[in-house]
Amino acid sequence: MTTDKNDTKTKIMDTAEGFIVQGGYNAFSFRDIADAVGIKSASVHYHYPTKADLVSAVMARYTESFSIQLPDPTDESLDPKIMINGFIDGFKAKIVDQRDMSLCTMLTSNKPILPEAVCVELAAFYQLILDWLTQVFMRLNEATEKIGFMQASQLLACLHGASILVQGTNQPDFFDHALSDFRSRYL
Amino acid sequence: MTTDKNDTKTKIMDTAEGFIVQGGYNAFSFRDIADAVGIKSASVHYHYPTKADLVSAVMARYTESFSIQLPDPTDESLDPKIMINGFIDGFKAKIVDQRDMSLCTMLTSNKPILPEAVCVELAAFYQLILDWLTQVFMRLNEATEKIGFMQASQLLACLHGASILVQGTNQPDFFDHALSDFRSRYL
DNA sequence: GTCTATAATTTGATAGAC
DNA sequence: GTCTATCAAATTATAGAC
Q1: Which of strand D's nucleotides are less than 7 A from any protein C-beta?
Q2: Which of A78, B26, B103, B133 matches a 20 to 30 Å C-alpha distance to B140?
Q3: Are B121 and B187 in contact (CB under 8 A)?
Q4: Which residues make Cβ contacts (< 8 Å) with residue A84, sequence separation at least 6?
Q5: What is the CATH number of the domain that holds B159?
Q6: Closest of B128, B168, B38 to residue A126, by C-alpha
Q7: Is A161 in the B-facing interface, judged by CB distances under 8 Å?
Q8: pLDDT at res. B4
Q9: Can you give the residue range of the structural domain that contains B117?
């Protein structure tokens, strides 16, 4: 089965993603991955020759999973308000419940030291998310693309910032504090 | 002179801060510092025995410099609106003009892998900034501490998030986009 | 206060056996 | 696909001369 969720490649990516959201690109080694998965580091290199390959794959999978889960923003049968709230709740689940930073926030903070291949995947993620949010906000507020894009930027900044604040203060309440005005205005 | 701004300790801290805001705690070595300052790594260890000592000192200096620059929030002769705008502009200068993340944002994202001593300094920074912002917002909106604290949280999240977005997209405009609603509502 | 020298460990990565 | 073995380089840190 090519879509086996328990094969070694998947386990490696899951483990890598876990390490990255904890401390970033430089905070783990191939041996860390190998130990966690229960294989040797040479076997990790067999699946992902270089660290850039591995982290690129993790980031690409992250984008892909968003791409699959996000509903079609032009689907008239869907309420844009519910779409945005679903997006926020998904983010909150990661930040507050799992107490992790998002992969996107973490890798973005490491951008100046990231291999080019990872930066490309990161840029693809931003493109996907900002496009989607822009389209949903355009419908929500019957607004121009420019306005929709501004609101998308605001929400994305709010979410990034909320995750930093929760991490920095250890107080999950900061997530809802940071989002409260945005929610009461648009949602 | 104990306040010499060009002594070796200061050069080391300046260099370390530059490296940290680029890639975080794990993205530089004592040799990187030594090369940039023009000494040997053993000499860096003479001034700061461990990496935890060095980064703690950098973070403590950062907090201290904020502490000195922030005006007294209870000074009735000062306009709270101007105080907040000054705070935002100072942040913007670092993010947009220097194209760096703030030291606080960067180290917070690395928090799970930070030595305890650095976490202590980071917590002290959050305490200082949130207290100051809370007091200024209480005056600005003649609000309770709870409300002031909520607005302080929102602004701080916005600023953190804006810096991530600017970094991730390479578009400085995101800073003002992310802040626009906050500005038009309170400032 | 800075240096040389070096220890002990970790890192990303490869060669080749099974 | 996983292993053992290994490499070259880098890492944090220390000892001791000047």
Answers
A1: 1-5, 10-16
A2: B103
A3: no
A4: A133, A136, A137, A140, A155, A186, A187
A5: 1.10.357.10
A6: B168
A7: yes
A8: 74
A9: 8-186
Place of tokens 């309420």: A79
Instruction: Locate the chain A residue with the closest alpha carbon to B99.
Output: A112
Q: What angle do CA A131, A134, A137 make, to 5 degrees?
A: 150
Contact yes or no for A168 and B111 at CB 8 A: yes
Å between A148 CA and nearest CA of chain B:
11
The reply to whether B27 touches chain A by the CB within 8 Å rule is: yes
pLDDT value for A15: 98
B9, pLDDT greater than 60: yes
- Residues B44-94 have pLDDT tens digits of 999 999 999 999 999 999 999 999 999 999 999 999 999 999 999 999 998
Torsion from C-alpha of A170, A176, A180, A186, nearest 10 degrees: 130
Give the three-class secondary structure for A142.
coil
Number of domains present in the structure of chain A: 1
CA distance A80 to chain B (A): 20
Instruction: Give residues 44-103 of chain B lying near strand D (Cβ < 7 A).
Output: 45, 49-52
Do the domain assignments include residue B81? yes
Q: With 60 as the cut, is the pLDDT of residue A11 above it?
A: yes
Distance (Å) from CA B53 to C1' C4? 24
Identify the band that residue A153 occupies on the pLDDT scale cut at 50, 70 and 90: very high
B89, amino acid identity:
D
Predicted TM-score (pTM) above 0.85: yes
Any domain includes A1: no
Q: What is the pLDDT of residues B106-116, one digit of tens each?
A: 999 999 999 99
